[in-house]
Write a structure and sequence with these properties.
By secondary structure, this protein is mainly alpha-helical. The chain contains nine helices and no strands.
Length: 248
């Protein structure tokens, strides 16, 4: 087996992360903190909800507004889903959720824009919420099913959105190895823990994969070309929208 030289390793890293790094750097240079207002708002809201739900007077408020369980009526779950995006799990350290949001939401917002970041985050969270209901209908004996006890478990909070955004941005900027590692980590989570959150993460990834496949099909129909290693297509338009205002 031939040993990889430092130069080859640097080239591989540049090919993997170079286009994404340049897109984020360009957005931050042009707009500075205004490149990620959604991210800052999401971090503040998540921290606030964590504080409130840990108060004796606040748990029920957060539960009524943003806690989604499969046992809830569908219309109630749909009304709560947007806020559930920012309700961190009670049994996990909140700093982990805040760090994930700050990093992944921040990169996504700078690279693909605020509207798409929010739309994909919500779409992924909704996919996880709907999967829980389908999984309960399938039952524990089905490979994709869930046990009846999972109907009482609160759906995953920001993590499904974080995972989906990471995969989408990696696909958008051709960071294929990173996307594969994220997906592999979620598969390992399900194999090791076999919990509802892990399966909702995979459901969110599946929904994003379908979205990406549909978009790729539309691009081929419209005669667009794949993104090259410099992050530009044949038309010179950056995949993250560098040719337009990425902050919207």
């Amino acid at each position: 087996m031939t040993e990889r030289t430092p130069s080859e390793s640097r080239h591989r890293i540049a090919d993997e992360w170079g286009p994404l790094f340049r897109a984020v750097r360009q957005a931050l240079r042009r707009r500075r903190w205004r490149a990620a207002p959604l991210t800052l708002a999401a971090v503040i809201l998540t921290a606030l909800l964590q504080f409130v739900q840990n108060q004796p007077w606040g748990y029920q408020i957060v539960h009524d507004l943003g806690a989604v369980r499969a046992e809830d009526p569908l219309w109630t779950a749909l009304l709560r889903t947007p806020l559930s995006l920012f309700v961190p799990a009670l049994d996990l350290p909140v700093w982990g959720a805040l760090a994930q949001i700050l990093l992944v939401f921040g990169i996504a917002e700078a690279a693909i824009g605020r509207r798409r970041t929010l739309a994909i985050a919500y779409f992924a969270t909704l996919a996880g919420t709907m999967y829980a209901r389908v999984g309960l209908l399938l039952g524990p004996d089905h490979p994709l099913g869930l046990p009846a006890t999972d109907r009482f478990v609160v759906d995953t909070g920001p993590s499904a959105a974080v995972v989906a955004l990471a995969v989408f941005v990696c696909w958008q900027y051709r960071a294929r190895l990173t996307a594969a590692l994220v997906i592999a980590a979620m598969v390992v989570e399900v194999l090791v823990k076999n919990n509802l959150a892990g399966k909702e993460h995979l459901a969110a990834i599946g929904a994003i994969a379908l979205l990406c496949a549909g978009r790729a099909w539309l691009d081929r129909r419209r005669g667009r070309y794949p993104v090259n290693h410099e992050g530009e297509g044949a038309t010179g338009v950056h995949p993250g929208g560098a040719g337009r205002n990425v902050g919207t």
